[in-house]
Amino acid sequence: xxxxxxxxxxxxxxxxxxxxxxxxxxxxxxxxxxxxxxxxxxxxxxxxxxxxxxxxxxxxxxxxxxxxxxxxxxxxxxxxxxxxxxxxxxxxxxxxxxxxxxxxxxxxxxxxxxxxxxxxxxxxxxxxxxxxxxxxxxxxxxxxxxxxxxxxxxxxxxxxxxxxxxxxxxxxxxxxxxxxxxxxxxxxxxxxxxxxxxxxxxxxxxxxxxxxxxxxxxxxxxxxxxxxxxxxxxxxxxxxxxxxxxxxxxxxxxxxxxxxxxxxxxxxxxxxxxxxxxxxxxxxxxxxxxxxxxxxxxxxxxxxxxxxxxxxxxxxxxxxxxxxxxxxxxxxxxxxxxxxxxxxxxxxxxxxxxxxxxxxxxxxxxxxxxxxxxxxxxxxxxxxxxxxxxxxxxxxxxxxxxxxxxxxxxxxxxxxxxxxxxxxxxxxxxxxxxxxxxxxxxxxxxxxxxxxxxxxxxxxxxxxxxxxxxxxxxxxxxxxxxxxxxxxxxxxxxxxxxxxxxxxxxxxxxxxxxxxxxxxxxxxxxxxxxxxxxxxxxxxxxxxxxxxxxxxxxxxxxxxxxxxxxxxxxxxxxxxxxxxxxxxxxxxxxxxxxxxxxxxxxxxxxxxxxxxxxxxxxxxxxxxxxxxxxxxxxxxxxxxxxxxxxxxxxxxxxxxxxxxxxxxxxxxxxxxxxxxxxxxxxxxxxxxxxxxxxxxxxxxxxxxxxxxxxxxxxxxxxxxxxxxxxxxxxxxxxxxxxxxxxxxxxxxxxxxxxxxxxxxxxxxxxxxxxxxxxxx
Length: 776
Fold this sequence. Notes:
The protein is 31% helix and 29% strand. By secondary structure, it is of the alpha+beta class.
């Protein structure tokens, strides 16, 4: 017989046949006074019917000294050989008559005691409240028979058995429901074994603490940590707002929206938040229901929020505003939503709590986020307001970063577009097509550029360049380099000399930027000059990819040339390359963004470029599009500039050349020859001016230059007169005095022609003048 527990054995006739030491200590009756006598004689009152039927409950016994003892009693039937009950094993324990019992009953946490077969032996008031039934309805019943079949109840039963099998306590956390609760609660549950004085296991005790407050505190911290990685993954305002919604729904809200002030999506400076109603632009919302049917404002539209509405108050006061069902402002807000969107009224049923939090970053209010709970049973409280403000401030910084990036990118793009040629002038020397694609990366707009520069003698300068880096600084530097190239090209420098001067300029720019030391600015450039008369292309590169050329009827090949060092390195020479091109050749100049990318092989991309250029197309514009489509990935990682030119040639029928003997008497002969050639070209109206220009330029060459001297007329989009000699001395205009016999020749040429100038050549210089031909 057990010595620790109060146990009695009663036969089918109600006679006590066994009595434990624990029963003696509980009632004061020794075994010899009880065994063989009716068990009813131990009762201090009538046995309740429900206890009799359940074979468990609270029973009042009479102690040997006469006082009443309330015990929690459980009766287990004992079956005979034929299966019929022959008696009962009755187990009893004190029922709250001691201070410990009172502590058990009045504990704020749910506490229960189970026997080794997972049947209820005892429950306190908190446990009965959770279960929704009195203790008498559960005593003696198997735990699974008292709850619904759910995973958390199966886990509870498994842990009860684990304590019985191992004899060790178990502590775990679970989100579980109970018959008297309308939702699942987070619980911290502890189970431990109960032992008799002999150490024998007699039962399992359980205490369950509702840890909702701690759970939601941890969950809010987890959401904040999650927000730091999930919000702001892109520098896009709308996507950042969508990421905020993804964090809020469904863990924190059943519906959430993000509305921004209009200036955030534009280029205006932030205005003051008005005292009255506020116009907000909806950029994102989400809910636990597919399609967001509870949203009253569609994405992309605006809404005017009343002055006393929670969103407006949050904007004006700069803090989170809570509103609960039944409060006037909540009722008014919900009525406004229903009036604006009646079709969503049914989906707003059950809305009971709202929180509006301002989105503020760097002291500037950007908008407001609104969270609503419907299915979520808990109202928003002060802790939720603190969390919302922290999350809102983090999201606002990300939104402001995206706004600032978008603004800077737009500024850089506008600056770059203003610096790039918007429309290239038509050239007789080449047919031109071009494309510029800014990258969509987070780095921003780069410093790629291109240009087509008309030169003297019908020639044309072709340039592409790239400033390393992104943003406004790169765009501004690109503009400075493009202007410098145009200035140097106007001096008619050969490609290698032009790059040498440009390299010096970049070195000076780098020195100005760094102050202390000259650093590499990181710019590349390729400059080429095409002469339609000689059909020769001269080019030089500073750290830039070599262009590709497609000869008529042939396939594309990369021009073999020395790239030279990037601009700004200084001290190293640039080598010029020259080749003759038949008319109709296509030359492709491009920046490295077309073929270079971290995920692509440069050689493979260059081969794709050559294949795309080799395809026969009707126009250069079509070829431009085809090249970009064939070579570029879907999301280029860098800016791309592409310049395609198709060469033209000026044949002998458009060029006339005369060797000039160094004899002043030959001037009249050359004037006559020039007039005759103009007549043959049908340009008699230009003969008078042209003869004067020929006379002045040839006279100067004979008087001040060195032989050999040559006169050339070119009929292009303008009429070009060139006189070349072997002297490197450049002419210049000067003001002749009243009694001077000479010095007025170049001034006369400048007045009669559209433009004039000189350029150095390998054998001296060339003086040239152009006349506009509106009659051609």
